[in-house]
């Protein structure tokens, strides 16, 4: 299909999104709980079938998903395909291929020979009925990727996509029951009141992706029921250009690529850049050059035929415009604003470390550049902020990577590129501190929704070994019990 296909799905205005009622939320919960209790979702052929159906749903509706995100975010088809639809099809098929090995019990070999006959084993069991709450910025991948793990683990799941992408929300709500077993998977359409109602129910796991303010609300609700929780939050992910980096054209291209995906509204977008003072001017020139390549003559980022994504909502747009008005930094490129809609890629220099742009995650196509004296100053800036989701380090020195591993903290450390860590299904992904907790991706998402249930079988024939543990306690029994604790501890 051509990438310039006209949009076919009709946009759904936010006001006409029909929200799920509290009664319907309760009915969904009761139905899914009954299904879980029936044991049906434990069967591997059942899980495999649902995963294949999910892959079919994505393939059959590839263009419809692109259309929905064109309608809600004005996002180019290319970006939706790369980061959502095609990515997810690979992710489902990866789960299908590995389902049996992921779900197989893990034997736990024991050190002591006499315990080896007990057959210590971890059995993989579905946790139960789970709730997946996702945000608007990558609504498909952030709803369906956790769902893949839930299905693979054998968990019924309720999906709560963001109300800020109404066309997508209607689409996924109509497709899930068509492709998947409606007794096991359901979608709640709604905003704060509906999510609040859902959060009061007792789930067996909650998977939340979004901002940290709401993350705290979700964690409080989960805590009331001791519900295990995964929090995938955001933060200010720095891009650091080291002194040794000479190919600034490639560095700038890679940073600008990561910054402009979805109009900068990506949790792992490089939020700001830390650049050696002597390299700032050359780096800005390289960014301008990269911009010229990305948007050649006639392909303007705001008014051209393939503009960058819109800012999701007028309030988010107003917030970004306000930051641009209040910053002490100097706009050296871009800065054009399309009223209530989008913002051109904007680069600023002379940005002080306490600037308004250095407060919260920017989440827009604005790149502040902070000039630093050396790499230690860059590390100090990063460490003065809450722990980010990612640090991007551009260097040719392996030693610098180790310095960053030792002296900074982040969900991930990526050297010499941006956002490509998301392509590695085998690499668990997650934040730390303010950027969240819990990991996912590939098998790790299966693990999120799986309880690893330990099991041993103690033979009756071992009874002679146990005489020392029973009452009456005696000096001999006590000395025998002390013996393992007398092991020699090495000096170093
Ligand atoms: P959002 O406003 O769509 O909210 C996320 C979800 O929370 C939605 O489903 C929404 O309905 C629900 N919600 C909102 N307010 C609520 C409340 N008071 N009580 C209960 N539920 C509520 O999305 P957002 O938070 O603006 O998403 C953007 C944020 O998500 C950014 O900070 C970004 O970095 C982060 N993010 C993180 C990841 C990751 O993988 N770590 C991925 C994408 C986005």
Topology, please?
Blueprint: H1 22-38, H2 44-60, H3 62-73, H4 77-103, E1 106-107, E2 121-126, E3 130-133, H5 139-153, E4 157-160, H6 166-179, E5 185-187, H7 192-199, E6 205-209, H8 212-224, E7 229-232, E8 238-241, H9 248-260, E9 272-276, H10 280-294, H11 314-326, E10 330-333, E11 337-338, E12 342-343, E13 346-349, E14 366-372, H12 375-383, E15 390-394, H13 398-407, E16 412-415, E17 436-437, H14 443-448, E18 450-455, H15 475-482
Parallel strand pairs: 3-4, 3-6, 4-5, 6-7, 8-9, 8-15, 9-14, 13-14, 15-16
Antiparallel strand pairs: 1-2, 2-18, 7-17, 10-13, 11-12
Helix pairs in contact: 2-4, 2-5, 3-4, 3-6, 4-5, 9-10
The chain binds nicotinamide-adenine-dinucleotide.
GO molecular function: aldehyde dehydrogenase (NAD+) activity
Organism: Polyporus arcularius HHB13444
Keywords: Oxidoreductase
